C-alpha cells in the first residue's frame, strides 16, 4: 500500500462512519420493555401468615396446573380483591417469595435434647408420639377439674398452643374445638411472632 | 417488534425520529409520593426488588435504618431515612428514592447510543440495557443521581416505572405494595389533582410550607412528591433546582451539530475545490518529466 492508497482508505472510512452517524443505517428494532413475566402463570390465592393482619396474596407459579409439572412459586403480590389489604403488602409480605424458596426453611421435624447444641432430624411419627406423650403427662399432672367453689372448669393452664394463622374459618373452628376440648386456655396464632 | 410508542430516543437526530405511530390517545402517567403519609416501611423497596428480580447483597449497618446506603444496579428503589433535628428531637423525613422520570430527561439527552434510553408516550423513561455501552454519561448527567453502572456487565440500570407492568395495564410494583397510600399511581392529570387537594389539606392542618415537588428545570417529573416543606427539598435529599447540566446541553445542542456541519462543509469545500481548481498536478509524477538540473543541462547542450 502506498501513501495515496492509505489516504483513500482513511477517507472512505471517515465517510462511511459519517453516513452511519447521520442515522441512515437501518437497525433492527426490538421491544423496549421487558416481557411481562406472569403471562400464563398459575395464580393461587392465599393469606400471608406473618402477622395477625392476614393480608390476601396472589401467588404465581410456573406451569399450567397440569399433573406432570411441579409448581415452583416465583412471584407473590397482594390480592387487590382482598378486603383486608386491597393489594398492598408490607416489606415482609412483599418479599414472601424469598421466604417460600428460602434454603433455611424448616421442612421436617427436628429435635434438640436438653443440654445439647445439635438439632437431630426425627420422623413425623416420632414427633407426634413425643408431643402426645408430653401433653398427656402434663395434662394428667396439672388439669384443674374443679374451682374453689366446686364448679367443674376443666382448665389446663400449664400448656399453651400456637396455631396456624394461614387457616380458613373451618380449620380454625376445628383447631378451637380440639384445643378447648383439652382444656387449653392460652391459644394464639403464629401471626403474633 | 418495536413498541412504536417511543417519543424520544437517545442518540437519534430529529431527521430520523423513532417509530411512534401508536402514541395517539396515550395518557401521561405519574407516580405520586406523599412524604407526609410515608412511614418508612420499605414495602416499596422490597416489592421493587421482588418484581424486577433484583437481589442486592446484604450490606452492613451504616448507623441508619437506610440499607443499602444508596441506589445501586441491584437496588432501583430505596427508602431514604433522612434524619432531621426538629425542636431538639430526632425526626425522620422519608424519601422514596427512585427515578423521577423527567419530562425532559438529562440522561436521555446525554446518551449518545441510539435507543439505549427511550421515553415512552406515557412519559416513562426507560433504559434498553442491550444497547447500553456503559459509558456512564447518563449517571453523571442525572441531577438526581439515579442511574448506576453495574460492575458485572458495565451497563446502566435504574427504575423503569415497571414499564413491563404498565404495558399490560398494571400499576408499578412499588405503588401496589404501599400500605399507607403514600404512593399513588394514575394519569398525570389525576395525580396533579389529588396532589393539589392533599397540599391544601396539609396547609389547613398547619403545614404552611407544604407543597408539590415537580421541578420545572427538567420539564416536570413523572414522580411527583408532596413534601412537608417544599422550600427545603434538600432535607429530603432532593436537589432544590435540578437542571440538565450545561455541559450536556452545550455538547448535544451545539458542539455535535457544529461537528456535523463542519464535516459536511469540509466535504462541500473539497467538492468545490475539485470543480474550480481541479487536481493538484505533481510535475515529478508526469511522464517525460526531467529534474531541473537535467533540464538545464539538456538546454545547455542544445545551445551548444
TrEMBL record, chain A:
Organism classification: Bacteria, Pseudomonadati, Pseudomonadota, Gammaproteobacteria, Alteromonadales
Domain of life: Bacteria
Name assigned to this protein: Twin-arginine translocation pathway signal
GO biological process: anaerobic respiration
Enzyme Commission number: 1.2.1.2
Primary location group: other
Cofactor(s) needed for function: [4Fe-4S] cluster
Compartment annotation: Cell envelope
Keywords assigned: 4Fe-4S, Iron, Iron-sulfur, Metal-binding, Oxidoreductase, Signal
GO terms, molecular function: 4 iron, 4 sulfur cluster binding; electron transfer activity; molybdenum ion binding; oxidoreductase activity
GO CC annotation terms, alphabetical: cell envelope
InterPro entries: Mopterin_OxRdtase_4Fe-4S_dom, TAT_signal
Location of the 4Fe-4S Mo/W bis-MGD-type domain: 41-104
Signal peptide: 1-31
Pfam families (alphabetical): Molybdop_Fe4S4
SMART domains named in the record: Molybdop_Fe4S4
Family the UniProt entry places it in: Belongs to the prokaryotic molybdopterin-containing oxidoreductase family.
Source species of the chain: Shewanella sp. (strain MR-7)
From TrEMBL, chain B:
Compartment list: Cell membrane
Binding site for [4Fe-4S] cluster 1: 38, 41, 44, 178
Residue ranges, annotated region (Disordered): 283-304
Superkingdom of the source species: Bacteria
GO CC terms of this entry: plasma membrane
Keywords, ordered alphabetically: 4Fe-4S, Cell membrane, Electron transport, Iron, Iron-sulfur, Membrane, Metal-binding, Repeat, Transmembrane, Transport
Annotated function: The beta chain is an electron transfer unit containing 4 cysteine clusters involved in the formation of iron-sulfur centers.
GO biological process: cellular respiration; formate oxidation
Domain 4Fe-4S ferredoxin-type: 29-59, 123-152
rRNA-binding recorded as keyword: no
Molecular function GO terms recorded: 4 iron, 4 sulfur cluster binding; metal ion binding
Biased composition (Basic and acidic residues): 292-304
NCBIfam families from the UniProt entry: FDH-beta
Record-given protein name: Formate dehydrogenase iron-sulfur subunit
Binding site for [4Fe-4S] cluster 2: 48, 159, 162, 174
